[in-house]
Amino acid sequence: MKTSEKNIASVSYTPLPIDRGYTDQILRVDLTSSIISTPILPPQFKTKYTGGRGYALKLIWDETTESTRYDSPENILVMAGGPLGNEPRFPGSGKFIVGTISPLTGTFIDSNVGGHFAPLLKAAGFDALAVSGISRKDLVLIIDADKGEIRLVEAPTFGDQVDGGALSYGEALLRYLNNGTLSEDMAAVTTGMGAMNTRYGILNSLFYDRRRARLRSKQAGRGGTGTVMRQKGLQAVVVRSALHKVGGNNPADKQEVKTAGSELKKVISQVDPRQFRLRSWGTPILVEYMDKYHILPVNNYQYGQHPDAKAIFADVFFRRFLSKKIPDGCYKGCNLACAKGAENITLAHGPRAGTRVGVDGPEYETAAAVTCMGIFDPAFIMEYNWYCDEYGLDTISMGVTASFLMECFQRGYLSGEDVGYELRWGDVQCASRLLHETASGTGFGRVCSQGVRRAKEWVAGRHAERTGRRYDEILSELAKFAMEAKGLEFSMYITKESLAQQGGYGFALKGPQHDEAWLIFIDQVYNELPTFRMKAEALKWFPLIRTWFNAVGLCKLPWIDVRHPEAAGTENPAKNLPTIDYYVRYLNATTGSSKDLEDIIDDSERLHLLQKLINLRHGRGTRESDRIPLRAMGPVFFNEYEARSDYYDGWLKDRLGDEKIPADPRARHTLLLELRQEAYEKLCDEVYAEKGYTRDAVPLLELVEGFGLLDEQARRLLALFGVERRELSN
Amino acid sequence: MRSMRVSVEFHGVHRAITRVNKTRVSLSSNARVRDLLQHIQQTYPGLHLCQNDIMISINNRVSGLNHTLNPEDRISFLPHIGGG
Asked: How is domain A499-562+594-699 classified at the architecture level of CATH?
């Protein structure tokens, strides 16, 4: 039963109009003091920091310190779209970034998500929302542009089961605030009880879909942004305005926005049905290709392939679960529409067993996270997807942590006594039990809830206690197959056969998430990066262009996964430059700028450097933090080597010649691992040189200064790492 | 002229169109990839095997149209995958 909400603070305001993609105003809410403010940004702010991730980085850089933790009051939870979001004439324009200090990594995390929230926030007059402070009571923030009012209220309650669920609470709240109905012009951001009880809570972006006549959700999944939200005592944010049909950004050149957008849409509609069929099948289509090339992370990334994988190919989900067979975009006007939805899925396990639910997904990452636990049951994938969304859990971090613990059990580091039951690969009952214990913070779920890095330490301590072995020795053994770097769990791609992607994960500023660089196919399959130099160039360029998408409020997929037919004739087809050209034109037509691709890369490099500085400040910025577990480089255990010995032996022969290959397979395995580690170190040297960093991965002072980032904080920080102005030699 | 047999695997979109996972094809012993493509295109007219849209993989290595095939080669067609 709901209770009427108690007002904590409120302000009246008049929404500022959008001009060339910006309102130049942000909304700030401090939950400790209950102060709501609406500062106007100086003109140079957008020039220098672009939007989205850039705005989040600048606020975190200026207003937090090296001692700020995820649960510190001064930590800021930023939600920001960008100048190019909110335009149905251009595909993928509903994205926003959630940026904050992460409970997993202890440094800046950003995670992107679609839906109606960012376009409505901009329409309500704000380029970003920044929440600081901590409230003792659970609160809801309501931004109502129709009434010209922003309110902070005590969170209404609707009963325990609803209040603990991100999806259930979001729907109850939106109905409560809108006379029992749902509307496209209202959106919410929520999270659930799992975010309270773990370090990898997500943030759900909820929006009403008229065609499905229900609330749908997309997730900012990585790094624990939902955990930060709940630690702050913020249960939900609701925004109400009016979605723009077209032209809502008041662009400098409306005709050119229309032309660039329609040209890109034409490429999508012609090419996607022939290449990937994301519009029909969504991202689970990747399962089939990852399985074929030994990239699917089966059993905690031990094996890249499994005979049962065909049970979870995209066409299986399409036939069995996806209902209405309609393209489900996450924002208006996107004709790639890769999000998928299913109705009337009956849950088979857990506290809601027997309930019928609508499921948004699955994405490839969610399906693959289940294979990480050795499970190839599509019905369980749908259920895992829904529960993780409802609890507010990252499907990736949950799956990777659970599978790491399963491998600890397999290899005898954990016992049935430690866990309370047996952790077996491919066991739905066991995976389900661990999921629900994790979300509720009970039983062995309390270990799983901490993520791989902390679970590894717990297991090492427990094993040392039981066996009398040295803790450090056990920890270093576990570290070889604990799939995390910088504290974040790896996303769902095996990198044992792609050095470039090892770098793509290792150098990723937020930790090993593929959205900074996904180079596996270019490197491993297409063989387009045969030299260290080429890998290093790709590891600079791709993260920069990908960062730009996160700054302007756009989805990357129309560029990444729909190859323009004319790209084949260009010098570097993987860059898909003919499609990038539509984006450059859209940017200039919206903001009135006259930038080219080089300018965009420069804008992005500034943001990349700022994130690097934050990482250095928080102890995650040097070469040591770019190290990846041995399993990311090669087969840690002999069983992994044996399963793919033809490839590994071939790799050795290519490098050393037949005569230098040891006859003993175990000696070949040892040699392989030594060479793989050497190769990764060499890649580090090449990439740091390419980026203008020292050998310890610290940016040179001149580079930081060149991008206008050398403030007093940056100068002091760089000096701590021995990076100071170089004297010019005579 | 002597002949040889190769396997062609279909994935994703191509499997949906051909409705088979794999097929065996007989070709002349000096056949190249372009000859195979022509044969496949004739057998499955609904397939779009335009070079701009796909990569051709032979025994899991990307190859060109002029590559000479060998007996028992495994050929598949890949979309351009750029990740998420």
From this structure: Orthogonal Bundle (1.10)
Task: Write down the pLDDT at residue A251.
Answer: 98
Residue A139 forms beta bridges with which residues?
Answer: A154, A234
Tell me the C-alpha distance between A5 and A9, whole Å. 12
Q: Which residues contact A463 (CB under 8 A, 6 or more apart)?
A: A413, A414, A469, A474
Q: What is the pTM of this model?
A: 0.97
CATH number at residue B60: 3.10.20.30
> Domain range spanning residue B70?
3-79
Secondary structure in 3-state letters for A592-635: CCCCCHHHHHHHHHHHHHHHHHHHHHCCCCCHHHHCCCHHHHCC
Residue of A nearest to B17 (CA): A274
- Per-window interface: B 21-40 vs A, CB < 8 A: none
| Domain A282-489 bears CATH identifier 3.40.350.10 | no
Structural element, H or E, at residue A549 = helix A532-552
Per-residue pLDDT of A426-467, as tens digits, reads 999 999 999 999 999 999 999 999 999 999 999 999 999 999
A13-240 has which fold?
Answer: Aldehyde Ferredoxin Oxidoreductase;  A, domain 1 (3.60.9)
Inter-chain CB proximity A288 and B52 less than 8 Å:
no
Give the gap in angstroms from C-alpha A719 to the nearest C-alpha of chain B: 37
A506/chain B closest Cα distance in angstroms: 17
Residue at A231: amino acid letter: Q
Distance from chain centroid for Cα A711: 29
